[in-house]
Each structure stands twice: as C-alpha cells, then as structure tokens.
Specification:
It contains three helices and six strands; from the N terminus they run αββββαββα. The protein is of the alpha+beta class and 105 residues long. It has a single domain (3-100), classed as Alpha-Beta Complex (Aspartate Aminotransferase, domain 1). Strands 1-2-3-4-6-5 form a six-stranded antiparallel beta sheet.
C-alpha cells in the first residue's frame, strides 16, 4: 500500500459518515448524499472545496485546479494537492466533507 493509500484510509476512517467508493475508477470518499468529496489521483489527493478553501489550497506549491487529462476541461472546484503537502490533507478532507455533504443531490 502506498503512503497516499495509507493516508486515504486513515482520513476516511476519521470521518464517521464517509463512505469509501470509486469515482472515475479512482478511490474516493463520498458524503451521505452520494457526492464525491475527495479522491486519490496517482500519488496525490484531489478535493472538492469551497471558493475560500480553494484559495488556501492553491497557495500551496504545486497545487492546481484538477484536470484529468489534456482532452478534458479542468474540473472547477476540484483542487489537486500534491503528496508533498500530505500534512494538510486531513484538514482539507474535513472541510471538503462538510461542504459536499450540504450540496443537493
């Protein structure tokens, strides 16, 4: 198991209502409303964040708006946070979960 996978499971297990699932074939956490909160992308983590939290994440070196590949547009609201900032992942996960669980189905 990679460090990213270990951290993912630790984060998922720390959020009582979180459900481990898949999104685009990637391991993710979903909120009770069925919406994805975060996902593993290669060795990094992608978070669905509020505008305010996006700014905080984007201030980190190497963080950027998530774009799954060159033929697809960037996914607004989804921020790619590199493994180098894994110490911040738990905080972003909790913020993302609180945000996403309030979104309408």
């Amino acid at each position: 198991m990679t460090k990213t996978e270990e951290l993912f499971h630790k984060i998922a297990d720390s959020i009582p209502e979180a459900k481990k699932s898949k999104m685009f074939g990637c391991t993710c956490i979903k909120a009770p409303n069925g919406k994805a909160v975060l996902m593993i992308w290669k060795d990094d983590m992608i978070f669905k964040l509020t505008e305010k939290d996006q700014k905080e994440a984007l201030a980190l070196d190497g963080a950027h708006v998530f774009k799954p590949n060159e033929s697809r547009p960037a996914m607004g609201g989804w921020i790619h946070v590199p493994l180098a900032h894994s110490a911040k992942w738990n905080g972003f996960a909790k913020k993302a979960f609180e945000y996403v669980k309030e979104l309408k189905k």
